[in-house]
Design a protein that fits this description.
binds fe (iii) ion; seven-stranded mixed β-sheet; binds adenosine monophosphate; binds zinc ion; about 280 residues; 10 helices; 7 strands; alpha/beta
């Protein structure tokens, strides 16, 4: 069935497959348009555009920016960005620098806990400037300290765990303003990560909308039908655009497939035009 996938990671950030391989999987899954949304980097987009032209898949230039939400995070997706915008890319480079300040501290904690690894090994495995905890998880997997990325996060890397170190993050309003200033549409990724009840999430999205939010990721790999319906209701009440995607990462989220998530995800093709219109005004 024809579908969209507006949330995908590649080797340009913490995904394990290069853009062309992600697109080959998307093509098999019936995806007609997709967004590459690597964390804090846009370097994967040219390769995606080229592969998309070959496969007849429309490529929406995107990005995902983590922002501060108390002790936790809100992730903001940006769509139809001018991905070559120098100011945007300078800001993203600043976010990548904050990763390079935090990651060696995580590695130090892991070493103190008895795991023999170095940040150079992590950077080598990552092969990109946007280095994240999933890369550290993969080094731990390769060295047999953990069996899965999930175990690495549950034991060491998740917020509050033994090797966790927070990172300097922009405020959501700043992340959204950066996306807007590069002509993109800011969308709240996986809204349930905010761990709010229905009314709390409504209020949060209302505030974010006042600060520039354009849409909400209603369709997501881990949402059940009831959750999807509740998010759709909030999006409608706040007149937010509806988007959706798998958040495919390959190896570090092995249960998530391009286009279909855990099997039940379908992001309707009709959601693309309103998003495109919002980006062109
Ligand atoms: P970082 O960008 O370095 O803060 O790492 C956060 C990223 O790790 C998220 O964007 C997810 O892609 C990934 N992640 C978070 N929790 C988990 C988990 N339990 N298992 C696998 N990946 C995770
Ligand atoms: Zn990620
Ligand atoms: Fe995210
Ligand atoms: Fe993501």
């Amino acid at each position: 069935m024809a579908r969209l996938d507006l949330h995908l990671h590649t080797t340009h950030s913490d995904g394990s497959l290069p853009p062309a391989e992600v697109l080959a999987l998307a093509h098999k899954a019936g995806v007609t348009a997709l967004a590459i949304t690597d964390h804090d980097i846009t370097t994967g987009i040219p390769e995606a555009l080229e592969a998309g032209a070959g496969l007849g898949i429309e490529i929406i230039p995107g990005v995902e920016i983590s922002s501060r939400f108390g002790e936790s995070e809100l992730h903001i997706l940006g769509y139809f960005l001018d991905w070559q915008d120098p100011t945007l890319n300078a800001r993203l480079a600043g976010l990548r620098d904050s990763r390079h300040r935090r990651n060696p501290q995580i590695v130090e904690r892991l070493r103190a806990l008895g795991c023999d690894l170095t940040y150079n090994e992590v950077r080598e495995l990552a092969g990109t400037e946007s280095v994240g905890r999933p890369h550290i998880a993969r080094v731990l997997m390769e060295k047999d300290y953990v069996k899965s990325a999930k175990e690495a996060f549950d034991r060491f890397l998740a917020q509050g765990k033994t090797a966790y170190v927070p990172r300097e993050l922009p405020e959501p309003a700043d992340a959204m303003a950066w996306i807007r200033s590069a002509k993109g549409v800011p969308v709240l990724a996986h809204p349930l990560w905010a761990k709010q009840d229905g009314e709390g999430l409504f209020k949060l999205c209302e505030k974010l909308k006042a600060e520039g939010l354009g849409g909400m990721e209603v369709h997501y790999s881990t949402h059940n039908p009831k959750q999807t319906a509740e998010l759709l209701d909030i999006a409608r009440r706040l007149d937010l655009l509806v988007t959706g995607g798998s958040d495919f990462h390959g190896l570090t989220k092995p249960d998530i497939e391009v286009g279909v998530g855990r099997g039940g995800l379908t992001v309707p093709v009709k959601l693309l035009e309103p998003l495109k219109r919002a980006a062109s005004v």
